[in-house]
Amino acid sequence: MGFQRFTMFFLLALIILSQGLVKGTHGFACNWGLRSTHLLPPKIVVKLMKDNGFKQVKLFEADAGALKALGNSGIQVMVGIPNDMLESLASNVNAAIAWVNQNVSNYISKNGVDIRYVAVGNEAFLKTYNGRFVNATFPAIQNIQAALIKAGLDRKVKVTTPLNADVYQSDSGLPSGGNFRPDIQDQMISIIKFLYQNAAPLTFNIYPFLSLDADPNFPKEFAFFDGSADPVVDGSISYTNVLDANFDTLISALEKNGFGSIPVIIGEVGWPTDGTANANKKNAQRFNQGLIDRIIKRQGTPKRSTPPDIYVFGFIDEAAKSIEPGPFERHWGIFNFDGSIKYPLNLGGGKSLVAAKGVNYLPKKWCVMSDQANVMDPGLADSLSKACTYADCTSLSPGSSCSGLDTKGNASYAFNMYYQNMDQKKDACQFNGLSVITSTNPSPPQSTCHFEIMIDLSKHENKSTTTTTTTTTTTTSLAAPKMKMHSMVMPLSTFMFTIMLSLCM
Ligand SMILES: *[C@@H]1O[C@H](CO)[C@@H](O)[C@H](O)[C@H]1NC(C)=O
Ligand SMILES: *[C@@H]1O[C@H](CO)[C@@H](O)[C@H](O)[C@H]1NC(C)=O
Ligand SMILES: *[C@@H]1O[C@H](CO)[C@@H](O)[C@H](O)[C@H]1NC(C)=O
Ligand SMILES: *[C@@H]1O[C@H](CO)[C@@H](O)[C@H](O)[C@H]1NC(C)=O
Q: What residue ranges line ligand 2, CB within 6 angstroms?
């Protein structure tokens, strides 16, 4: 029974992974998302990457500020194309030529950006998209490849498409049973064949955290690399963690279709630090340290000993992301939004994580509920709702870092987030007469809850180097669907597998 239960969990966890690795880069790779209310200046972020040994970065779109800052940095770049551009790129090779010209060739030649990959779409085959992007993806990949050839860049810049692990599954519940989802099998084969012929890699995203978060019965230890879970036995192989199991499910799917040796990149994997009970610094440190140790040791999986390139999700917190997937969505960063350290990581060679340098902050002032104010005040609910509509209150969610506060502490936390989000403007600390500005740090001692001070963008030489990312309203739309889909898809596929399994057992 123990075995069968684990087998089932295993299945449930089928998220994804990848494998291959084109060339041996020694360094770390990360995703740099830009859905922030207060973007840390791109130059500081790039310096932070370099200081911590990151040599590859993935962007979700061709953001001008980020790309310029990456110029001549020595960091290799994967630049993404949002799903909503797929159709036009698919139907018109000239659109692809223009995209490559503006968003690849120019940055390489004019800004010295070391672009190595174009990621066409983002998890375009997610079941939750109901096939919306399925027909456009392959032609868009072909047109981008044609455009790269036309630009004379096809040897240096490879095309790929990051896919969610829901493109494959295992009817047996074990990695060896892996195959592609029947509804997109033909598309998958066409894409894989094309990428293979062009010496380009496949890219898959894996999320053990989402498996755990979606299923209260998931064996938690199996999500980590040093866990004490009983191994899942698949023929002669014993699996001790979800990542290996998922990755090898993909490898089995590739082998079954005759592409056992195609290079694979893990496009996203990581662990958030706040927003829900399992999203905390302890778990995130445990998971990410295990991941980093594997990267340093160049450890592969049982079925593929050559390790894949692994892009950690994410580098830095994004307080303006949609929280539809869950309150944890804004807390995936290894670093806080300001480039400060959340938890230590051993990066190998005696190095540990270092924080961002040269970050300017607003004065040490906080907005809190005043001593005179009453928690029964009828204006309180309104005030809280206003504060948390515009600012990030996800740290107040059940199980989160500030969930232990009393009602007054709660209100203070929300007021302060709003005040900081509004750059400490005087009139931003006016909540129906319930609030007051203080210079005494209200963060409770001995608590995980931290009342933050906003970074001072006016003191940085370039206030906003990016055009599309400085306001919450314009930014949530683009990258938001990514994680949203992740987490929606997980429970869904989990559910499916559960049904499949109960039928088999
Ligand atoms: C370059 O990328 C940006 C960001 O995704 C996009 O807005 C723009 O349309 C792209 N340029 C072309 C010519 O497609
Ligand atoms: C994709 O193409 C197939 C075959 O041409 C067609 O039946 C299907 O409706 C298309 N799907 C979408 C979402 O357009
Ligand atoms: C604090 O706020 C959170 C989020 O609004 C809420 O779930 C929780 O019940 C509040 N706690 C108290 C003690 O008011
Ligand atoms: C920052 O501002 C300076 C001075 O205005 C300008 O020369 C520089 O190009 C800007 N840098 C970026 C990355 O936009």
A: 131-132, 135
